[in-house]
From TrEMBL:
GO terms for molecular function: hydrolase activity; metal ion binding. Its cofactor is Zn(2+); Co(2+). This is M20 family metallo-hydrolase. The keyword Cytoplasm does not apply. Keywords: Cobalt, Hydrolase, Metal-binding, Zinc. Transmembrane segments: none annotated. Pfam families: M20_dimer (PF07687), Peptidase_M20 (PF01546). Belongs to the peptidase M20A family. Residues 206-318 form the Peptidase M20 dimerisation domain.
């Protein structure tokens, strides 16, 4: 098998220029969620289907999640199968990448090129979506194409999944596929999500923290700052509540788990907003947002109960009747919630295979750990399917002047091929 892997690796090297051309063509097509004001992934999916139409995949399927906001009313996901040596009975390796990208952000901060005008320079491909997730998408394609070119059937069937809506929650992507087409997935499947990692490819993510974003919205009564007794300063109420929430959550949920970096749960106040546009206005409204990344052993329901209980205490502390109305009013809105499933077993087949491949191809021992972010590996872990998140990345995702290193794209394709072959 070592000789076959060597042949496939050399073929991937031969395909380097074609890989760059493919990435460049895909970056040119914005695939921005309607949640961000974009048209979705339809055009990019069509381009990808056109690119692979003559490749000898055994089966290519398109699943369209309905979304009236998107171009042609759909959010497409593509599944491309290349069967293993036992045909449809072969064990299956899923490699899942996403078609969508985040918006460019402040265009003035893009100094190398414009977001959707890709530029190849100094061994890198610049452009929005180059690293997140174009690099790994192309790696997965050419891991398979190299085997196709050589007429090699891998040990495992490779299922390349190119899905929509990863950046805004996967409601029209992986989550929709799992909910509407559960027959696609099997407990014995192996799953790689190449959408996170580090710069030398030595980090294998097997666990995620739960994610909870919530907004505290306080309503008081706006007044001139020289006459505060005539109103209720929502800013003061919100500051008090935010301070005590921050303190309570850190004190009540202090457990550390060295699998993660950082090893403890985090509770970060991030965004604030109120309508005061002058120093002499005591605002009648104030909002503050918390971003919580919680170790999987804690319950998000319990945390929300704590938030609600403290909110009632603060309301009572500042209780005031103005014009027949009891103030303050305080609302808690959950902006995003993802309850982390149990981690992938560090001794599961996909983890062992990946560590073995990295040792063989790079001579490096990978570290297994957890992250504070969320990926769609979590959806598979909830099904009891072992999933890992891994790639070799400079962590340029969502940044201005985002780029993908060409060497990373090529070398990761070799590792993906190894997972199918070993």
């Amino acid at each position: 098998m070592g000789e076959i892997l060597d042949r496939v690796s050399r073929e991937i090297e031969n395909l380097r220029d074609e890989m760059v051309e493919t990435l460049v063509e895909l970056i040119k097509i914005p695939a921005i969620s309607p949640d961000y004001g974009g048209e979705g992934e339809y055009d990019k999916a069509q381009k990808l289907l056109e690119m692979i139409k003559d490749w000898p995949f055994d089966k290519v399927e398109v699943y369209n999640a309905p979304d009236g906001r998107a171009k042609n009313g759909v959010r497409p996901s593509i599944l491309a199968y290349y069967y293993g040596e036992k045909g449809e009975k072969s064990e299956r390796l899923w490699i899942l990448t996403h078609l969508d990208v985040v918006p460019p952000g402040d265009l003035s901060r893009w100094t190398v090129t414009e977001p959707f005008k890709p530029l190849v320079k100094d061994g890198k491909v610049y452009g929005r979506g180059s690293e997140d997730n174009g690099q790994s998408l192309v790696s997965s394609l050419y891991a398979v194409k190299a085997m196709m070119n050589l007429g090699i059937r891998p040990k495992r069937t490779v299922v390349l999944a190119f899905v929509s809506d990863e950046e805004t929650g996967s409601h029209y992507g992986v989550e929709w596929l799992i909910k509407n087409h559960p027959e696609l997935f099997k407990k014995e499947d192996l799953v790689l999500v190449p959408d996170g990692g580090n710069e030398d490819g030595t980090f294998v993510e097997v666990a995620e923290k739960s994610i909870l974003w919530f907004k505290v919205r306080v309503k008081g009564k706006q007044v001139h700052a020289s006459m505060p007794h005539k109103g209720l300063n929502a800013h003061r109420v919100a500051l008090d509540l935010a301070y005590h929430l921050d303190r309570l959550l850190h004190e009540k949920y202090p457990t550390r788990n060295e699998l993660f970096e950082p090893p403890e749960s985090t509770f970060e106040p991030t965004m604030v907003k109120n309508p005061a546009n002058s120093p002499n206005i005591a605002p009648g409204e104030h909002e503050v947002v918390f971003d919580c990344r919680v170790l999987p052993n804690y319950s998000l329901d319990e945390i929300l109960e704590d938030v609600g209980r403290l909110t009632e205490e603060v309301k009572e502390k500042y209780r005031k009747e103005i014009d027949g109305k009891i103030l303050p009013e305080i609302e808690i809105e959950v902006l995003q919630r993802l309850d982390a499933p149990a981690p992938t077993d560090p001794n599961s087949e996909i983890v062992v295979l990946l560590k073995d491949a990295l040792r063989k191809l790079r001579g490096k021992d990978a570290k297994v750990g957890g992250i504070g972010g969320g990926t769609f590996a979590a959806f598979f872990r909830k099904l009891g399917i072992p999933a890992v998140v891994w790639a070799t990345l400079d962590e340029m995702a969502h940044q201005p002047d985002e780029y993908a290193k060409i060497d990373n794209m090529v070398e990761d394709a070799k590792v993906m091929a190894a997972l199918a072959l070993l």
